[in-house]
Request: fold
Amino acid sequence: VKVIKEVIEKELLFQRGEKFDDVFEEFDEVPLGSASVAQVHHAVLAKKYGGGEVAVKVQRPSIEDKLMGDVANLKRIAKLFRELSVNLPVDYYAIFTELEEQLKDEFDFEVEAASMERMHKILTTDENGEKRESPVVTPRPIPALVSKRVLVMEFLKGVPLSRASDEMKRKGIVADGV
Reply:
């Protein structure tokens, strides 16, 4: 957790002269979820940030360089196969080039926050531009607490889709294999 807090401080707080405890009243050390690029922690904002529960998504240090380096190596190998006219079922160089482009946005949580806001607008506005109640609830970013590597967003209580699906199968609402 020390490393995660250091990323948050470096990305969000140092330039504003704030400390970790100035922003978060509580911060759960055990992540809610973890993946290859980032992990998410439950936290409670300090009153000056409106209080309330949030989810804090933090990118793992150096992960962008590592994964982009791996993709660059895969591209080099694929280019070699292409130049040697090795008969492969697909053009792996093209695939890895596209993967490289797609991954760039995955590492920028400011892009993700903007996407979250666009999605919210789409869900809460009808075809005439009038406000409407959203058919689904999605978290919104906390604008003052977003950077390239840290995304603080509203915390939504719920059940992971995998557990919801299992529960629906158990109750006979959906059949196995659905």
Q: What stands out?
A: Strands lie at 24-27, 33-34, 38-45, 53-59, 141-146, 150-154. The helical segments are 2-13, 20-23, 63-83, 92-106, 109-123, 161-170. The first helix runs from residue 2 to 13.
